[in-house]
Design a protein that fits this description.
heterodimer, A: about 120 residues, two-stranded antiparallel ribbon, 2 helices, about 25% helix, B: alpha+beta, Alpha-Beta Plaits
């Protein structure tokens, strides 16, 4: 079963050197998960100041600067993993380096058959 | 540029659709996904079941607390994510404005991904 792990943390919770170390440790975790066949994807996001939100109302598009919701901590990145159950997903979430400074939301992923993007990427 | 697109919707709205309407919407979504995929815009995407199934881990002073429910209680809840390759923000907005799933309301947050990381190229 796939799980999406969303990492929320204060954007100033880490110094630049802590952030560099966090990227290194996270990359290491990605490789570890990959050797166990549990890695699907992961990405850190640029600061929330770069977020854009789009809403469609009665066929009209509204574009605003900023995230969907203003929260004390901000979405800073995510991991997408393949885990046998929620307990294993929680165990992986507990090991995410950035998590120690914030909060991780774990969401099981819905498998919809017939969606091309969920199949392996074609070369090139 | 690589963008993470987060779609937020009211779950009740989707549940209140008739089966025929929902089936038609799913077909439209699949067709649009196929277009994104075939043009190399969509790298990865996943739909999520209702946020009631979320679990949240909070870390404080080295301790972990496990809570049921999503990170934030909002009227609309995260229902799907999509990793999008677009020329620039305007292109990303243009592609995401036409998502059939968002026509019934909701909000879509677009976040640029940090480059030179595992998937950020």
């Amino acid at each position: 079963m796939k799980y999406l792990l969303l990492i929320y943390m204060g954007e100033n919770a880490m110094s630049e050197s802590e952030r560099d170390q966090c990227y290194k440790d996270s990359t290491q975790l990605c490789h570890e998960l990959s050797t166990k066949g549990q890695f699907v994807g992961a990405n850190p996001l640029q600061p929330v100041a770069t977020a854009t939100s789009v809403r469609i109302r009665e066929g009209r598009r509204m574009v605003t600067d900023g995230p969907f919701a203003e929260t004390r901590e901000q979405l800073g990145g995510y991991f997408l993993i393949d885990a046998p159950d929620l307990d294993e997903a929680i165990a992986v979430a507990s090991r995410i380096p950035a998590a120690k400074k914030g909060t991780v939301e774990i969401r099981p992923v819905l498998e919809i058959p017939g969606i091309p993007r969920n199949e392996p990427a074609h070369a090139g | 540029m690589l963008y993470l697109c987060l779609g937020y919707q009211e779950n009740e709205k989707l549940q209140s659709m008739s089966d025929d309407d929902r089936a038609a919407l799913v077909d439209e979504c699949k067709a649009y996904d196929r277009m994104l995929w075939e043009n190399g815009y969509c790298l990865k995407g996943n739909a999520l079941p209702p946020a009631a199934g979320a679990v949240t881990l909070r870390f404080e002073d080295g301790k972990v607390c496990v809570n049921e429910g999503p990170y934030a209680q909002t009227k609309e809840q995260l229902g799907g994510i999509l990793l999008l390759e677009a020329r620039d923000l305007n292109h990303a907005i243009q592609l995401m404005s036409q998502l059939p799933a968002m026509r019934r309301g909701g909000a879509l947050e677009i976040r640029p991904v940090v480059a030179n990381t595992e998937e950020g190229r």
